[in-house]
Design brief:
The chain contains five helices and nine strands, in the order αββββααββββαβα. It is α+β, with helices and mostly antiparallel strands. Strand 8, helix 4 and strand 9 form a beta-alpha-beta unit. Helix 1 runs antiparallel to helix 2. The two termini are 28 Å apart.
């Protein structure tokens, strides 16, 4: 609700979980044309209701659009979407004993499924050598987003009724943050923590030859951020927080 209130007051909103480590400014990667810029995290296909095969070049992967890192741009369509999202969450809680039915990320993903969101790879609109974006319709501050995605769909709200000309409708435009340079700890490979440490050291020393995990072929791109959302698996109570604190310290996060 705070997000919707801020959007309605004309403020853009960037939200991040506290267990995310950033190595570059994520706002510089947000598409200027996107209403919402969000991350995608692979999940087990047996987990239903939390995602879908949104990414057209990854048809076998079920991905949840993760509200742990998301940017909302304040404009009429985003305001209407945020208000509708809140209303659906509250209504789901009223109708179900299972609180998960009202969880914002679940409802967000189900709205995307309902509207048949399809994310297309920015590699199709990027220079294959320089990785620079080559589209007049999609751009950002850094000028590249080779491993990002974009998509849109006609948007009608069943909660907010905007004033539109007859036969017209709103269009919700979304972007997905870099998928090769973002890693969720839920599917991190072996020795991933060691790789992040090396990346942090390279960034601190301004080393241009070793950007660490999943650098692009031009050796100029480096890890953007990582989400420690599964580091605490196996721990309970306060031990969950201590496990994440220890991990954040180990990867050289400025957060602690």
């Amino acid at each position: 609700m705070t997000t919707a209130a801020a959007l309605c007051e004309g403020h853009n909103v960037f939200l991040s979980d506290t267990d995310v480590v950033f190595y570059r400014d994520p706002l510089q990667y947000a598409f200027h044309q996107a209403d919402i810029m969000i991350t995608g995290t692979r999940i087990d296909p047996s987990i239903t209701g939390w995602g879908d095969a949104f990414f057209t070049d990854r048809p076998d992967e079920i991905i949840t659009l993760n509200n742990g890192v998301v940017f909302y741009r304040s404009n009429p369509v985003t305001k209407n979407f945020a208000l509708t999202l809140i209303a659906h969450c509250v209504n789901n809680l009223k109708r179900n004993d299972d609180v998960q039915q009202g969880f914002l990320q679940r409802v967000f993903n189900m709205m995307m499924v309902h509207n048949k969101l399809a994310f297309h790879p920015c590699s199709n609109i990027s220079d294959p050598v320089t990785f620079r974006l080559n589209s007049p319709y999609i751009n950002n501050t850094v000028g590249e987003c080779y491993d990002c995605y974009y998509g849109h769909f006609p948007w009608w709200s069943d909660v907010v009724q905007p004033v539109l000309a007859e036969g017209k409708h709103e269009v919700l435009k979304l972007g997905a943050y870099p998928m090769q340079r973002f890693t969720s700890y839920c599917w991190a490979p072996a020795n991933f923590t060691e790789s992040l440490i090396a990346t942090a050291q390279a960034l601190n020393k301004s080393v241009s030859s070793n950007w660490g995990w999943n650098a692009l072929g031009n050796n100029q791109s480096r890890v953007l951020f990582t989400h420690a959302n599964c580091v605490d698996i196996g721990a309970t109570g306060r031990d969950r927080f201590q496990k994440k604190i220890n991990w954040l310290r180990s990867v050289g996060s400025w957060f602690l």
